[in-house]
Amino acid sequence: WQIMINGESYKPIVAEAARKSVDKIYNRIMVTHLLMDESKENRVGGAVGFNCRTGDYHVFRAKAVIVGAGGASHIFKPRSVGEGMGRTWYAPWSSGSAYALPIQVGAKMTQMENRIVLTRFKDGYGPVG
């Protein structure tokens, strides 16, 4: 019932495919704003961000922009009490802040109550097993 996916072997394979598909990859860039396309109404034409290690700012122009926000934890009050309050199995830095990017430029967001859906496996590992 349990399919083990070893991330340490999966990540290099995906990274190599990404390197082969583009001229340059920008790592560790925190996008702070989306830029609207001035020639086309209701269309995003790029993004602005900074390098988390150096602080250098980057402006990207693009034909298409995808916001891969991932999940969000700590947005609802947990059922834990006392010492367990605020503790979670999920990443504490997964704040859902990237959800604000499309909202700030006027996008309509739907189904935001389903911010993360974890698959459950028989005899699985983790908090949902």
Please tell me about this protein's structure.
The chain has a domain at 67-106. It contains two helices and three strands; from the N terminus they run αβββα. The chain has helices at residues 7-21, 100-104; strands at 29-36, 44-51, 57-61. A hairpin with a 5-residue loop joins strand 2 (44-51) and strand 3. The longest helix is centred in the first third of the chain and has 15 residues, at 7-21. It is globular.
Give the % helix.
10-25%
What is the gyration radius calculated from CA atoms?
Answer: 18 Å
| SSE ordering | HEEEH
Strand arrangement in the largest pleated sheet: 1-2-3
User: What is the rounded distance between the termini?
Assistant: 11 Å
- What does the main sheet amount to? 3 strands, antiparallel
Strand-residue proportion: 15-25%
- What is the number of beta strands? 3
Number of helices: 2
Structural class: alpha+beta
Runs with pLDDT <50, length 5+? Answer: none
Average pLDDT for all residues: 81
Shape: globular
Concise overview:
The chain has helices at about 5-20, 100-105, and strands at about 30-35, 45-50, 55-60.
Task: Record the SSE blueprint.
Elements: H1 7-21, E1 29-36, E2 44-51, E3 57-61, H2 100-104
